[in-house]
Amino acid sequence: MTKFPNDFLWGGATAANQLEGAYDEDGKGLSIADALPGGPERFSIVNQANFDWKIDTTKYKYPNHKGIDHYHRYQEDIKLFAEMGFKCYRFSIAWSRVFPNGDDKEPNEAGLKFYDRLIDECLKYKIEPVITISHYEMPLNLVTEYGGWKNRQLIDFYENYASVVLNRYAKKVKYWMTFNEINSALHFPVMGQGLVKSNGADEKKNIYQAWHNQFVAGAKAVKIAHEIRPDLMIGCMLLYATTYAYDSNPANQLAALKENQAFNQFCGDVQVRGTYPAYTESVMNRYGFSFKDLDVTADDLKVLKENPVDYIGFSYYMSTAINVTDKSLETANGNLVGGVKNPFLKASDWGWQIDPTGLRIALNELYNRYQKPVFVVENGLGAVDKPDENNFVQDDYRISYLRKHIQAIAGALEDGVDVMGYTPWGCIDLVSASTGQMSKRYGFIYVDLDDEGHGSLNRYKKASFNWYQKVIETNGEQL
Ligand code: BG6
């Protein structure tokens, strides 16, 4: 098997809103994640016309409030990551911990101090921090008072926030990402853009306007980052779902190509190349509007052009198959990105179609499209774990999933792809983003906490913990 490069960044990934808890401590403001009800019906509640972001604890549970209490247990958690041999740790900064309302004049020093401590804890073990500036966690006030990312004013708020965290941490932190899974908004605009029915989520034009604002904000962050530290690497972050035509029918091939452009490629094309792609107008026309309907200034286009990202971070969980010719085919319901069921693939318990080869294809597609390094910053199997009486989980299903995906990365290296690293999602169990469940677990570390919020919060190593430790120790030789 192809060897992994010596500086390959093995690690794990998390997001502030899904593990920190302490949602109202030390001056933190409310974020959109704090107002999302827990449970598999999370998205259907949010999609109701009368969803108004009010926190109602008599009606719903809010698992993100407690997370897994990482805010108070980060030392124990980082120590476990170090024991696994992590070379890097991808986490996000909670915007609402630094700017509680998003539009505050001054940052919250107590919030910044937490990340000082977290970063130093990583560095103590020679773990390279990889920071996502905004991961599904914008200050709630920016949605209720400003209408979310479709409002241009957010560019300034984000620029200010990015400038504060970059100035504070860039000396110690080389790897950054601007927005988590920016393209996911095409299918669920609530998480990344703060758009729900009441503020225009149903109108695609708003999603594209919000994206434009995010592209500009992200490019400004890139500019600041490079001014502070020229060797700093700041990437975009895409949700990549490798897209196949269901069969060789040219109509399905064309539909797959268009879906690929609209979902996988559009955001990356702007952020990596710094210009809107040739198919922009055709995608927008499909949704009933034109590029000229968007609020885009000449200055915006200049900022985009001058500040492309340095690498492409992406999450990979599933592939999708596109069919427009046979209406009788079953849709892949669990797949966040739609499509039909692929008869060659099995799905996870949550219906996500498992496809390691799709990861090798994704890596090839991304690298050969952009010729910039690619970084697999999320991947993993959400599964129900059943601990034994000693709280040990024999998660062979997870090991098997990860092994095949790592083999796919090795295959891509063999294909000549420049892969920077691999940070499996939820390296420690945490609250699921799409369903707000604890029972959908990804971790190498089991956290004793259930969907009702009961449990000791104690941490226990799963079988996959020792397995992954060996993978890192042997630099991917022993899988
Ligand atoms: C990605 C997100 O979509 O997938 C994470 O960046 C998320 O925030 C992860 O947790 C897994 O999804 P879920 O819904 O199973 O938590």
TrEMBL record:
UniProt-listed PROSITE patterns: GLYCOSYL_HYDROL_F1_1 (PS00572), GLYCOSYL_HYDROL_F1_2 (PS00653)
Tell me which residues this entry annotates as catalytic: 378 (nucleophile)
Top-level division of the source organism's lineage? Bacteria
GO MF entries: beta-glucosidase activity
Q: Name one GO cellular component term.
A: cytosol
Keyword Acetylation assigned: no
- Record key words, sorted: Glycosidase, Hydrolase
Q: What is this protein called?
A: 6-phospho-beta-glucosidase
Source species: Companilactobacillus alimentarius DSM 20249
Upper lineage = Bacteria, Bacillati, Bacillota, Bacilli, Lactobacillales
